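Reviewer comment 2.1 asked that we show a complete input and output for one of the modelled complexes. We chose the sodium ion case, as it is the one discussed in the main text.
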Amino acid sequence: MADSKAPARVAWTTRSAFILAATGSAVGLGNIWKFPYMAGANGGGAFVAVYLLCIIMVGLPIMTAEVMLGRRGGMSPISSMRKLARDSGVSSRWAWVGGLGALSGFLLLTFYTVIGGWVLFYIAKMASGSLQGATTVEAQQALSDLLGNPWMVLAGHTLFMVMTLWVVGRGIHKGIERSARVLMPILFVLLIVLFGYAMTSPGFGEAVRFLFSFDFSKISGSSVIAAVGHSFFTLSIGLGAIMAYGAYMPRETINPRTGKRTPVSIGSTVLLVGVLDTVVALVAGLVIFPVVFAHGLAPGEGPGLLFVTLPVALSDVLGGMWVGTAFFVLVLCAAWTSSISIAEPPVAWLTEKGISRPKASLMVGAAAWVVGLGTVFSFNLGSGYTLFGMNFFELLDFVSVNIMLPLGGFLIAIFAGWVLKETHARKELNMKSFGIYMVWRAMVRIFSPLALVLLVVFSLWKALA
Ligand code: PFF
Ligand code: NA
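Response of the prediction step:
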């Protein structure tokens, strides 16, 4: 009934548009800000190894499942899940998986834009040269001055929220697709240049050893939990963002000149996006850690890592100011395309309720802005308020990323593997190789859910031991 009122299905203009938008979603603050500081705080190689294992065993199969469910459903995650549950003859309560996802996404959005706001300030700081010649202590001071000022943090949060919802409000083609086409190429060019620059740093070898030498004894319960959650966060899975983008993915593309039809394969597309995301995280680590070691800084610095080490590293080199500006512009491109995708599922859902896209964007943005005040203040006025030893930001980050996303991913795997009719899954994935299809199916039915359960049990055991 709702279906008959649904507007004609919108779709990405090309396969490459989906790849750019999905990569834009995946590559974000998670790769450039969070991954390095988490690896630094969780023993380097030990964390990286578990993280890579999670990407392969859990991340890629679930990402494939999400895009498949999205394309099959063709609507916002909530409505797609309801429709697919109905088609499969099970309770429409499965729509709650979409609802849980929209809620996790909403919570992520409220703090993602706060950190995005710091990035805006750092572009200005680098470009103005105010950090040229700064020592480590001075750079740390500059960061605490920024975070200690609630008005500044609030201004950044507000601006970033407006930038995000402005793009979402303009729609799939003029907003999301166009922004990805402009921002993603800039990101990749800047990253390659910075990587070349980092390879010449004296700390490069130590950074490689730090990130890739594996020491089992260094694995702790909390580092496993962190790695599981981060593998979901970094691939944008477990909350329906990639499902929402999958809904706009065409089944085939038609060449306008020859009229030739080419099927769009979900499997190979997802693999490409997953590999790009992983490569960007590792390269970002290889850009940041040489600097950390060459300047004798501590890798376990926490969320401030990116904002302190880079300015320090670049403070005494010729043209460092420009390299630094370029770097934070890169982080901005990454963060912006990601926050756009976090906001898409709730906005898409509201548009199905008959609300216009600009208005829906305004509603989501305003609500997320208000909840985001909690994060804004947890770096200054409210830093003394803690629960389980975590301030508001840390608690929100922990609950959404480490609990809600893995739970959402678990349910998505179960639905794709056990509930959805096998003929439907097979037809939608349309994989060339039956062998690969069977591997995927075994992964979502058994290995990924089991791996998630085992990882959680293992980390609890490690934590209690
Ligand atoms: N994948 C993004 C990152 O690594 O920064 C964060 C993210 C985007 C998470 C979109 C979830 C999401 F739906
Ligand atoms: Na990512």
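Residues 2-460 form a domain with the Amino acid/polyamine transporter I fold (CATH 1.20.1740). We note this here for comparison with the apo prediction described in Section 3.2.
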